Amino acid sequence: MPASAPQYQNAPQAAQVPPEPPKKKKGVIARILTAIIGLVVAGVVIYGVNYFTSDAAQSKAGDCASLTGTTTKPEFKTVDCGSAEANYTIGKVLGGPGEACGGDGYDEYTETARRGPDSKLCLVPNLVEGSCYVLEGNQMGYPVVDCGTSSAFKLVKQVKGTADEALCTESAPLTYPEPKMTLCFAPGENA
User: Fold this and answer.
1) What's the confidence (pLDDT) of residue 112?
2) Is the CB of residue 112 less than 8 Å from the CB of residue 97?
3) Predicted local distance difference test score (pLDDT) of residue 153
4) Chain centroid to CA 30: how far?
5) What is the mean pLDDT of the segment spanning 154-170?
6) What is the pLDDT of residue 141?
7) What span, in angstroms and rounded, lies between the C-alpha atoms of 95 and 109?
């Protein structure tokens, strides 16, 4: 009799693994909703990044700014109000280019974002009483000029806290409702 392999009665049997249930395929509607939610989240992220990286979008009334360049290509940055670069104070912050500053004296800065919020700022120039400026042109800011310069105007009076043209009895007034301010100008020496 040939020797046969030993038989063990308590030998472990191979465990039978139940077959995996077939994976359910996502329905078309579920895939569309997932894509829409992904696009919305991406849009919010892009909007937030543009908002939080824009000096203009973060500005508020009373902040100071430095604007250089020309009216067609201005360069904007917020600065400390005590800085020598602070050539403007932000009078109003508007929601976008379609809104009006509501005063003739304001200079305006509009930042149109490719993605994210548009910003429009109504700016009041920071001028020094007794100094002369050329008030027209396409240059941003008003650098001090010699009072003998052609078309220069001298700031003879500056009253903060009130916007009243009557304060400029013998000079040309320029008033701002926000922040309330009255500037009185007289022609320079060669006017």
Assistant:
1) 73
2) yes
3) 92
4) 38
5) 92
6) 84
7) 12
